[in-house]
Amino acid sequence: MTSRGAAFPPFSIRGDNQIVGPLPKQMKAATLRVLPRSFYDRDPRLVGPGLLGKILVRREGRKLLTGRIVEVEAYLGTEDPAAHASIGKTQRNAVLFGPPGLAYVYFVYGNHYCLNVSCLPDGVPGGILFRAVEPVQGMNAMFKLRGIGETSDLRRLTRGPGRLAAAFGITRERDNGKDLSSARSDLYIADDGAAPPEVLITKRIGIKKAADMPLRYIVPGNRFVSG
DNA sequence: TTATGGATTAGCT
DNA sequence: GCTAATCCATAAA
Q1: Largest CB tally within 10 Å, which of A18, A101, A156, A213?
Q2: Of A140, A128, A134, which is closest to residue A192 (Cα–Cα)?
Q3: What percent of chain A shows pLDDT beyond 70?
Q4: Nearest DNA or RNA nucleotide to A106 (CA to C1')
Q5: For the segment A146-157, what is each residue's pLDDT rounded down to a tens digit?
Q6: How far, in Å, is the CA of A28 from the C1' of nucleotide B13?
Q7: Which nucleotide is nearest to A92 (CA to C1')?
Q8: How far apart are CA A25 and CA A44, in angstroms?
Q9: Confidence band of A21 (pLDDT split at 50, 70, 90)
Q10: Tally of helices (H runs) and strands (E runs) in chain A
Q11: Separation of CA A165 and C1' B10 in angstroms?
Q12: Contact, A107 CB vs strand C, < 7 Å
């Protein structure tokens, strides 16, 4: 699974995380089902594990960039000091307080964007941070967006929230507030029918406040999980 | 108005 | 393993 080049997309990834393929083009399109808004209208602690194994999709003109979600973190409301929502509604974090299923994109450390999806009903804050996906389709385009050579370790493409966002061309200007539950968006999340993976819950990483809360959800053993 | 630090990453040692 | 880079939202003054 380290070899690339000849075996470039389309790929498919089985439930046991083995890459197989290529698959017929129609098959991929036909099996993708966009997750509805109701999927996100729940506590992030339920949405988070439910998102593992689902597919993040970016439409770039005719191209499709896709990746299987393997690592996310839940961020709650006022009871979660690490959450951006804990300080109350501001211009920056307003999407977290809005309807479920919308993209919350913020800029950190002067360099990187991070993608979240809002959870819970309108008026109740909460969200899920996407920390890593396993690339499925459009890897060559992702390498371009990341600005790294295609000979680089595949894991550098989408492992970590900043890398993931860059690989999918995600910015606050372009994507903040976008509806991730609509196939009409150029950014959405879908179910390709793969069996739900095993879920491991750990402490969140990269934060100082509330660092002990077990709100990180990962596919154990997956090479693209960070940390 | 100024200061602080962050839901990170790349590049060294 | 360690640290510089880099900018913006928020806190402090």
Answers
A1: A101
A2: A134
A3: 87
A4: B7
A5: 999 887 789 999
A6: 46
A7: C9
A8: 33
A9: very low
A10: 7, 11
A11: 16
A12: yes
